[in-house]
Write the structure tokens for this entry.
Amino acid sequence: MDNPYIIKTTGLSYHYSKGAQTLFDINVNVGRGSIYGFLGPNGSGKTTTLSLLLGLLNNRQGDIEIFGQHLHSNRVEILKKIGSLIETPSLYGHLTAKENLEVYRSVYNAPKARIDDVLKVVGLEDSGKKTVKKFSLGMKQRLAIALALLPNPELLILDEPSNGLDPAGIIELRELIKKLNKTYGMTILISSHLLGEVEKMVSHVGIIFKGKMLFQGTLSELHLYQQKGSRLFIKTSDNETAYGLLQEHHPELAGDTVSVAFNDINQVAAINRTLTEHDLDVYLLHPKANDLEQLFIDLTSAQS
Amino acid sequence: MNLYISLRSEIVKTKRTAAFYFTLIGAAVVPFMFLCNVLTDGLPDEDKSSKDPLNAMFKLASETTGLGILPLFVVLLCTLLPQVEYRNNTWKQVLTSPQTKANVFLAKFLNIHLLILLFLVANHLFMWLVVIATHYIIPDLNLLNQPLNIYTVWVNCANSYITILAICAIQFWVGLRIKNFLVPIAIGLALWLTGTLMVLEYHSSFANYFPYSFQVFSFSPQHKSWLNQVAWTSFGYAILFLFIGFLDFRRRRINA
């Protein structure tokens, strides 16, 4: 029986201390070969979820399956096929880039040549004898990604990997992630609190807020959700009449504003014509295109 | 094999750490004091009057090292090595790598023992350098042509190592548990001082069971009869505290 999901959590809940629940019934499904954007504002439970997936925390409730195996009974075998970067880079400041990778090379049973390969992938092949404490934050971040790539993983888990990177670094990282997915078929789970930062590379999205999953699906499903959410806000000299005239657009009357759903900007012009042709004065015509960033804010703020 | 891989990883991490440098510096302290003494005042009085100055030198060196330097070095080492992970914020990378917690824990403990062994070997090598230097500074002693009682040197060294095992396991647990660098050192120093005074000043019978007193039993003639029992107690404590330390390490949530 083929499991389409490389990560599957069922009813995952967690609390750090009694009475302070951090996660509620989290069901994350990450398909093989996908780039899954795990989104949510700071403190929403992303790092806790990823820590549970990597066995850093013992799950209190629910089940975690990775590569079709239960995490807690096959932890070491599963971790052999995962590369990870959780929050800030975990590197030894007194060692060079190569020595940092050497610490884990045997642990992952990687050949010696793999060290040069991954340093080349992240552009640190010339770091030489410089110790990591002398690296810039961007270089540290790239070395941490090299460390995550060392085992040639099937699954890469990156928690806020663009923290501390400049705009050029963020673009480089995005291209690298796309390349790893496309060229090596790696499944990538990447968390971020900025939707705009990941929407250009992910195929799937999960949105978490206050420990609860608000949305999970493909990026196109999110776009569909976005289109449904786009609305035109109208104020006229007679909102009751306007409400009657725009019945085909399923209007909503709230206070002194009528709002209707719309799909493209031409519809806005057509609605304006309909209103003026019926001698209504139009004071406000505000199309609120529900871009992904807005949708993200709406999804998260609707729950707060 | 997996434990060997984890140990290898720990050894690579130790490169250029303060723990590694302290091992060599700590091993050189007593030989350096000897050398200074030879250069300024000749040999210490008890060595001068001895008919066997070479063995007297090694005896005095092993006593000074075993009673004071080695316990303090172990306290420092057991704090410095776990600090490598805390200071670099690397615990999460270690614990998300494919190693069992038992292997990580044991590899760290074995790494400490490798450094203790390096300390003891380096200490004796440095002592030999001092002996060679003394041979040329005070040619009358003719030190290099005198027989060294290697068995006694070995027994003293082994006793120092075995009686220190209990302190090592306790301090290793404390060092892993407490993120703050100063607390484990303060605990270790206070207990070492208490343990040493308990035997030498107060002649307390409780010292036979107090791990931080055990190092005295190797060298104090009036306590030598208890050495065998104390060595076994030290070994037993080491196993016990290692086990407790591991249970704590396995259970604990590592945030750094």
Observations:
- Chain B has a mean pLDDT of 90.
- The first helix of chain B runs from residue 2 to 14.
